[in-house]
Amino acid sequence: MVAPLNDSHGDCRALGQAYSDWALRYIRESKVVFETYSDTAIDWNRKARAAAALEGDQASVQGAHLRIAVEHSRQKAHHRAIEQLRLALALANRRGDVPSQADCHRKIGIEFQALAQHRQALKEHERDLELALKLDDPHAEGRSCRNLGVSYAALKQFGKALKLLQHAERIAMDGQHWDEAALARIEIGEACSRSDQMDAAAASFTGAMELVDAHTLPLSTAQRAALGAGDACLKIGHFVEALHFFDRHLAVAVEQRDPQLEARARVYVSNATYWLQERWGSRPNPNVTRVLFHAESIAAARTGTFAHASQRRSSGRAVAAAGASAGKGECVLSEPEVVRRDDPAELDMEAAESGEGLKTGGVQEGVQN
Hints:
Structural class: mainly alpha
Distance between the termini: 34 Å
Strand content: under 5%
Number of strands: 2
Radius of gyration: 22 Å
Strand order of the largest sheet: 1-2
């Protein structure tokens, strides 16, 4: 371990950030390595907090609390994250720092969402919205509305949820915050899906995919949009479109180098392929997905390789393969490429931090949020 040049909070903070960055590199590769680096980041941030307190720098103490909360959140220790965020909020209140107050309320709400304590989350997000309106900050207002909409949807108050989420989408589109707009459309799609409005859900997810295609957005956003669009299209019987979106979802899973996500994505592709073959069947054959999943999981474990379909803008090859095998009782995927995982995965920082924590857990900026 490299010792700091001195005990200043700046040097301790720099080391904490370095270990935090290393933790993110391994967040999907190795839980043990990730937690080791993350715990070390927490230790250095505690030292930075102590040094800042000795120097009388309350803003830096507040920042250290926030950074520690981030690490706890990534480790899914949400109660500990809330403790640190409340300490940061107390300092922001004492300093009269309204933007920081709003930020803390929002992040506390996200942690409660990760814990599925949505009534508590509503209180925090309502306070965040009040402060955003006070600051006349449309971007913050949009994020607050989206977070409120997610909690209302979780509580099955879909009317309130959709009004808030649609307002958040308009604000994001007006401000050209494309990822925020895509996330709002994803949340609208999920709310519509849960309230059995499947045509509206498919339209909203497809709109999110249009933003993914038009702009460079985090992989986590592309993954959620593609999966939601595929699921909605499958449920309304648009099997070709479903296969296309599931294929896109598989390509994103491969790019994220997440074997578990990739295995699940392959199941979705196989289901959509089966529906194309057996268009008039009442349900997919469960043996198809079970056997496919089992066989490929064993192959991946033995060889260290993961076969996948390369990303395509249309599902032409897959549909052709499905059509050629129709009536034979087979589940056919387009011919895969093979990717060897010899090098450590480079984590997409935006993808890890996207989602505001509900879907990825924690105070990171961006899915849910």
